[in-house]
Design goal:
By secondary structure, this protein is of the alpha/beta class. The chain contains 9 helices and 7 strands. The termini are far apart.
Length: about 200
Amino acid sequence: MKTITPEFKLISDWITPKSRVLDLGCGDGTLLAHLISRHQVNGYGMELNPEHIVESVQKGLNVIQSDLNKHELNRYFDEDSFDFVIMTQALQVVRRPDELLDEMLRIGKQSIITFPNFGHWRNRAQLMFQGTMPETETLPYHWYDTPNIHMCTFQDFESLCEQKGIEVVARTVVNRDHRSSIGMRLAPNWLGEIALYKIQKKST
């Protein structure tokens, strides 16, 4: 089996054995295959790229071809169909991340989301001193060819969660090598490059 990334390892540690999992934008199915092997989850994937779908199916995975921008989760899944709905490095590329969060927490009891931090000090420094849009290892695109259309900071994301009645169950803030530090824990919005969030609806 393909070696998983440090990010996927961190996500895997949050998954309960034998749970129901949906991986949005599952790519070639590496994470989902790992979760099935390690945690014996009942897993499904959604992916747009046909080549990635073929790779996932070759791994024996159940994958639906779907565009996350078309709000098709309602079409395929009922409320609380999953224990976990995962979306890695895709929040910033969808047209309406706020609406997608609602859909994820309708069909899943908890969601796990990862995304890069536009508020990291290197990005701020490039904007301030060079006057150009940031280009870093975690944001490796030019302003004109980037798929990222809704860049946000950790603080932005948590403010959105508060507005929508979403509880942050767990958060891990790491650098590009997926390592954390005391500084990142004390000043995540300045020093963290990537965040992993586990969220759920607040109980009423």
